[in-house]
Amino acid sequence: MTRTDTALEPHGSPSASPQPAVRMHAVSHSFGQTKVLDDVELQVGYGESVAIMGRSGSGKTTLLSCLLGLITPQVGEIHLGATALSGQGRRDLARVRSETVGTVFQHSELVSELTAEENVALPALMNPRTKAGALDRARTLLADLAVPTQTRARDLSGGEAQRTALARALINSPSILLADEPTGALDTELRDRASALLFDLARINNCALILVTHDPLLAGRAGTTYHLDQGKLRPAQIA
Amino acid sequence: MKSPWALPRTVSLLVAVPTALVVLTTLALGIAAGTYAARVDFADATAIRNSQLFPDEPTTVRARPLWVSADARSAIAIVAEPVSPTAPAPFGLTAWPEPGQFLVSPDLTGSVEELGARFGELAGVLPDEALPSATSRTLLVRPSEPLDDQWAAAGFGVKGPMQQVAIQGSGFFLDDRISAPAAFAGIVLAAVLPALVLLGTALQLAMRRHARLNRTLEVLGVDPRRLHRELLKQVLPPLLVGGLLATGLVLVTYFTDITVPFAGFTVRSVDVQRHTAIYAGSALGGLLVAVLVAFVATYPRRLAQGNRPRAVKAPRSRPWLAVVGVAAVLVTSQVAVAETAAAVAAGEDRGAVLWVIGGSLIALCLMPAMVGQLMTLWAGGITSLARRKGSATALLLGRGLENSRRAAGVAAAGAALIVVTGLASTWALMGAIPAVQAQKVIDQIDGRFVQITPPSTGLVGSEEALAALPDSVGILTLMEEAHQLEDGSYDFTTSIHGSEPALEHWGLVPGEETPVTQLPGMLSTTITSGQTTPVAINLGEPVPADNDEIRLAYVAFNVDGTRVDRDAVQRAVAQSGGPGWNVSVGGENWVIGANDLAHAFRWIGWFAIAGGILLISAVWIRTVDDQRRQIAKALPVDALFSSHPRLPAILAYRMGVIIGATLLLGGGTAALFARVTSASLSTTGGSGPVIAAVCVMVAVVLGAMALPTGFALQKLSRDWTPGGARD
């Protein structure tokens, strides 16, 4: 993969900001009788990367959902930059996600009828603030990631699709990257390349990267690794 | 860049057609309202709705409306004459007809001979624009002799002992026995609501294509309103195409008459021009409703509490809503039955139509909740049984049905189909059966006598009018004498006058009292209709001229026992006594009333068929969607792990469960409300057979809809590869 100095150039994440990119304070959440998050504390600064590991069903996805504003925790506060998520409406949360967060899904969730370029540009085209030059930016991002721009999503290989999803996450120049098992559907070689790309992009763009994974190799690339067990988030050592 | 929300042509068509139908069904409301307004205007203009005098009416005319019969259906004859040579002709005519002439509305041109016997010579056809609708049954009669001041009134007013007279068969609108609100509610229930169900189903199908994309984009930060706007942008063109097609039809009707197929009714341009606001307003209202439905249906569903792009799932069940639905059906149907029973007991001609329609509307709105709850209960039972028995087929079936919105959607639409068509069928039959029964009675009487009614009951000396009848016709005079009782109230005694041969013809002995019950059957029925007098007294001729007993009617018959020529008798009495004299065959009024009702009720059948087609379409779309989804879910398991194909069985059982829920809730609801009509349908065994027939029809339709899926399944099973069935 080649890298140009255009799209992957740092895009002004507020590294000088006194606030962390992500702050979870005393967050607790239960589903029925099951406490999934128990007094969770987490801070991630711009340019930092964090991996969260844990057994299936341990609450990793719930934690990520809280960060996306899709779950409102029953207790605690979450700030993305200076913005508190609590009390925000559906539209405001969408705006915060659009302006602040880039998300990579386990399955790429591309629109099969659209080309790779169109898929990447789509979230930007839907926002008046980011609409201008969206297709150009998408093309540049994809060129950097070595994805054919005019191929329809349904014809992309697994690696290309996931790289396209990564480009889509970056299209609005987010300051926070959230990734849910981003390499879960890829083979070993593709997984290594994709994870290297993910961390490089986060570092270059000075993004706070939070990824949820079962993969110790992927987690090992992160600056900090946490383990989520019985609702408690604790620092973990990767062997 | 091609919009990822672009709708395929077939889906666009699926949205456009129901939109047009929503507009057309609301237009039907407008036509009903327009016709009703026209009828009221006409009735007010001719003062035939009111029974009091109108002193302020112009004095250029002396007139009286008459309720008459033509071709065994009722009509209104406006008997009128000018009081001065310069009096303008009514109904937009350029000149008055000559004395002894009459004009008929177009709907009565086939009954000219019958009407001519009473009113004289046909002078022409009334102009279309003078009538409230294309099927108005109205005559303008100019009597050959000047009208009696006691009988007619100045202006188009009414004088003398009057009855409430309505313009029967005035077209689109049901007759006076069904109130305007009930008729409007019926159209909403049988047509507008099914059209909305179909539109909602089509929009649901269209939106489901983009559900995952919308959810993904919202997680990525796209404003839901922006997504909504994109979806609306895709849906609006087919909505507008459908709306424009339908409103185009309104424009066409502004210039041209359009005949409603299979209804014997024409939407006249003159009506549309007269009530443009009503017609255009209703069409526009329909389009607005369609847009509103689209606006609601296209709003992206709230995201689920999870970071994967899922929508919020509906609650697993809403027992309270289902309970409210069942309670509403039970209460409203019971109230409707009680109201009807009370009306029957009081001898009042009022029904509980609004209760039935209102209750049915509530039931249809809550049907998804009721069906969903029922199917959740059944699914739980099937799953539990499957786990105990270790049946994979039953397990997949039970779990597949749990909280399945698609399966509940099919059953809810099917249940709506049963309720709408079942109720409409019973109601339509209620209108048709009395006509059949009445015709049987009149066939039994076989014209052996006719009843002659004078212009005003109690017209002393009216026997002179009968003098024109030939000697071969025997006459019985039916009279009534009032006796004041000690408490001040009155008792009435009915007496029958007739010559000795006439009385003997009927087996009556002059001078003897005969209990009414011992009068010859049909004669008793005819002459005592509506009377409570217990005894008949046979007296001989002649009826004293100074006898002040009230003449109720006369019975004329051929002394040789042959069939009476009704038209000949009518012609004779009308020529000597005037157009106010009416001759009817025994039981004829019953037939006329029943025919009027059946004619008006044809709209119920028409709307039931239209609504049925709309709902069947909705059921079909939902069935295909449900089966497609079910195949996508179960095919991989079936293809990879099953020793033999289980999917056909699962789909068949699933359809069976859906049909069961449909029949139980749809049939149950329809049967509860149809109890109101059961008494009227006693000759056909009540409403049960009708509802049962509708249920069988719906079950067959639902079953048949599953067949194509079965065939498609064979191909799908053959072609399936891992990963290919991902939904």
List keywords for this structure.
heterodimer; A: 239 residues; 4-stranded antiparallel sheet; 10 strands; 24% strand; B: 727 residues; alpha+beta; 7-stranded mixed sheet; 5-stranded mixed sheet; disordered C terminus
Please, could you describe this protein's structure?
The complex is a heterodimer of chains A (239) and B (727). Chain A has 7 helices and 10 strands. Chain A has 239 residues and is an alpha/beta fold. In chain A, a hairpin with a 2-residue loop joins strand 4 and strand 5 (83-84). Chain A is globular, with a radius of gyration of 17 Å. By secondary structure, chain B is α+β, with helices and mostly antiparallel strands. In chain B, helix 1 packs antiparallel against helix 3, helix 5 packs antiparallel against helix 7 and helix 9 crosses helix 11 (405-445). Chain B starts with 8 loop residues before the first helix and ends in an 8-residue tail after the last helix. Chain B has 17 helices and 15 strands. Chains A and B meet through helix 1, helix 2, strand 6 and helix 3 of A and helix 4 and helix 5 of B.
Compile the SSE list and pairings.
The complex is a heterodimer of chains A (239) and B (727).
Chain A: E1 22-31, E2 34-44, E3 49-53, H1 60-68, E4 75-80, E5 83-84, H2 90-100, E6 101-104, H3 116-125, H4 134-144, H5 158-170, E7 176-180, H6 188-204, E8 208-212, H7 216-220, E9 224-229, E10 232-235
Parallel strand pairs in A: 3-8, 3-9, 6-7, 7-8
Antiparallel strand pairs in A: 1-2, 1-4, 4-5, 9-10
Helix pairs in contact in A: 3-4, 3-5, 5-6
Chain B: H1 9-46, E1 61-70, E2 73-82, E3 101-104, H2 112-119, E4 121-125, E5 138-142, E6 153-154, H3 180-208, H4 211-219, H5 224-255, E7 258-260, E8 265-267, H6 269-274, H7 276-297, H8 319-345, H9 353-389, H10 392-401, H11 405-445, E9 449-453, E10 473-484, E11 490-498, H12 500-505, E12 513-515, H13 521-527, E13 535-540, E14 550-558, H14 566-577, E15 582-585, H15 588-641, H16 647-678, H17 688-719
Parallel strand pairs in B: 2-5, 3-4, 11-13
Antiparallel strand pairs in B: 1-2, 3-5, 7-8, 9-14, 9-15, 10-11, 10-14, 12-13
Helix pairs in contact in B: 1-3, 1-5, 1-7, 2-14, 3-7, 3-9, 3-11, 3-15, 5-7, 8-9, 8-16, 9-10, 9-11, 9-16, 10-16, 11-15, 11-16, 11-17, 15-17, 16-17
